[in-house]
Design a protein that fits this description.
alpha/beta; 44% helix; Rossmann fold; six-stranded parallel sheet; 531 residues; 15% strand; binds adenosine-5'-diphosphate-glucose; 2 domains
Length: 531
């Protein structure tokens, strides 16, 4: 059934909420943070969750004043921890003390945030050197951008070891139902914890970025062997898509041959110390679509967005055909150069768009301590300037770049007021911007054009797929999409929104936690008791 606008205005049916079992099943409905909190309590009882990320969720503004996460995954984790108690360990990236109490709302316990200070040289090797100089380009299929040294790998190991030690320290004070570690900067934390010994709660890990296919005929690089073996130390490793999970399994088989077996649920690997068993799962990450719908509809937000567009010269008078929108960190994996090639191909295909349709790029710089990023930012800037020199007319510019982050309450109406959205990543674990755009349409008919190399394209149906490697073909797809009957475009958007409302970030989080929480509640002497 095609979802109607009226249906979208109803809350989701409150039928079966969930059974705190491994399989959340299609009946499990997570309408918002409350359902996630109920799921957590039903599965873990009063045992807290311990979360570990590279980046801290809050920014210290001085004198105990904190700015909380504006949205996204951090905010979802933050909300759960605020209400259920717990602990978050991260590397400190603003001022203030090592340990903070992050307050919950009235009546909520809040949680403790451990903010580990890492000496700058060590952090440089860990973050700019190995995480973003080696792991990021490798897993985003950009081998020519890999730059890292043995010292960087040593720094990465050392930071992971320190984080592991901090977790073990906190286990002396608290008995979490599980430890949930995030992303490629922290792959070795589980290994280090097991090396340090002692009894541990279940260890879950989520890998947010793609897993690369192994180059045919080449062995697995030694450092990659170490990362993979490190990941085997967790009890569950989550991936965004089946493709990434299967590539991970292929890497394991390339390394361990017949010492590894996989039964569709459990991966078993015979290592020197015994057999490691873990669950490599698939959990496509998502957003809170209702939150974006509300922000995109809010009259005050819409007014602010209109004024913002006027300042940029993108209001109806200055840019009569409107604008296509792109929102991403200025990262080479997001395909900035390819996007500009597509735009040029679109103008070549339909010159009547010149003077009419612009591209609005919201693109804050990122990771500037890494050479490859600095060079890329320069190249993207000069390519945009070249297009602007060539095609600008009167006050109209083809490319308008905003080089800073915008609050989600402004992004949502900017998505909604656009003529369409371009997601041009050459590789992307998921891409949440695509989902935010679809949610912000909320009955609107502006199309999303999303790269086939994103997790979003791999896990959602009915999307208009483009290929950054083929700008001319992509331009044709974009042109067709823009010319499509608005009612058909609206129907596609509504179907996508209905999917996102079911597969939202709360469900994502619960499905990540379900299996490890169940195993935690079954452990003898565990504090976690199902309700
Ligand atoms: P990212 O590479 O950062 O995340 P993405 O999934 O698009 O990519 O998430 C970015 C988030 O930051 C979105 O919520 C977006 O709104 C926000 N954002 C991006 N640019 C912004 C801007 N200019 N101003 C304000 N907000 C901005 C990594 C992986 C992805 C994976 C996510 C989550 O690379 O593949 O989807 O983690 O797992």
């Amino acid at each position: 059934m095609t979802p109607s606008l009226a249906l979208l205005d109803d809350p989701l049916p409150s039928a079966a909420l969930f059974d705190p079992s491994v399989d959340l099943g299609p009946a499990a409905v997570f309408r918002g943070p409350e359902d996630l909190v109920r799921f957590y309590r039903a599965s873990a009882g009063t045992a807290p969750l311990l979360v570990v990320t590279n980046r801290e969720p809050v920014v210290w503004k001085g004198e105990g004043c904190l700015s909380l996460p504006p949205g996204g995954v951090s905010q979802t984790i933050h909300r759960l921890l605020s209400r259920t108690g717990g602990r978050w360990i991260a590397l400190r990236d603003s001022g203030g003390p090592d340990g903070l109490r992050v307050p919950g709302e009235e009546g909520d316990p809040g949680y403790r945030l451990d903010r580990m200070e890492i000496p700058p040289a060590l952090m440089e090797g860990h973050y700019a050197g190995f995480s973003n100089g080696v792991l990021w380009p490798f897993f985003h299929d950009e081998p020519s951008r890999i730059s890292g040294s043995v010292e960087d790998l040593a720094a990465y190991r050392e930071v992971n070891r320190r984080v592991a030690a901090r977790i073990l320290e906190s286990l002396r004070e608290t008995s979490p139902a599980l430890v949930w570690v995030h992303d490629y900067q922290m792959a070795l934390v589980g290994r280090e914890m097991r090396r340090m010994g002692g009894s541990l709660p279940p260890l879950a890990f989520f890998w947010h970025i793609p897993w690369a296919a192994m180059p045919a005929g080449e062995g697995v690089p030694r450092w990659l062997g170490e990362i993979v073996t490190g990941l085997l130390s967790y009890d569950q490793v989550g991936f965004q898509t089946e493709i990434y999970r299967d590539r991970f399994l292929e890497t394991v088989f390339a390394l361990f041959g017949s010492r590894a077996t996989w039964d569709g649920e459990t991966l078993s690997v015979a290592l020197e110390g015994g057999i490691r068993r873990l669950h490599p799962g698939v959990f496509p990450i998502s957003i809170d679509p209702d939150h974006f719908r509300m922000m995109a509809r809010d009259p005050a937000n819409l007014l602010r967005a209109r004024l913002f567009l006027e300042d940029l010269g993108l209001d109806a008078a200055a840019s009569p055909g409107g604008y296509l929108v792109s929102v991403d960190r200025l990262d080479y994996s997001k395909g900035f150069l390819e996007r500009l090639d597509m735009l040029e191909a679109l103008y070549a295909l339909d010159p009547s768009l010149l003077g009419q349709l612009s591209l609005l790029q919201v693109a804050p710089s990122t990771r500037l301590s890494v050479d490859a990023y600095r060079r890329y930012a320069e190249a993207a800037e000069s390519r945009a300037a070249e297009i602007n020199r060539r095609y600008s007319r009167g006050g109209w510019r083809p490319v308008v770049t905003v080089s800073r982050s915008l609050d989600p309450s402004l992004l949502a109406p900017l998505y909604r007021l656009s003529r369409g959205c371009l997601v041009t990543a050459t590789r992307d674990g998921m891409n949440l911007v695509a989902k935010e755009f679809l949610a912000s349409q909320d009955g609107g008919s502006s199309p999303l054009f999303v790269s086939r190399h994103t997790g979003t394209a791999m896990t959602m149906e009915g999307l208009s797929l483009i290929d950054p490697a083929d700008p001319a073909l992509s331009a044709r797809i974009i042109h067709e999409g823009l010319c499509l009957d608005p009612l058909r475009r609206q129907r596609k958007n509504l179907e996508a929104l209905a999917f996102l409302r079911e597969h939202n970030v709360y469900r994502w989080m619960a499905s990540n936690l379900a299996r490890p929480l169940l195993s935690s509640s079954l452990r003898p002497g565990s504090l976690a008791r199902p309700a």
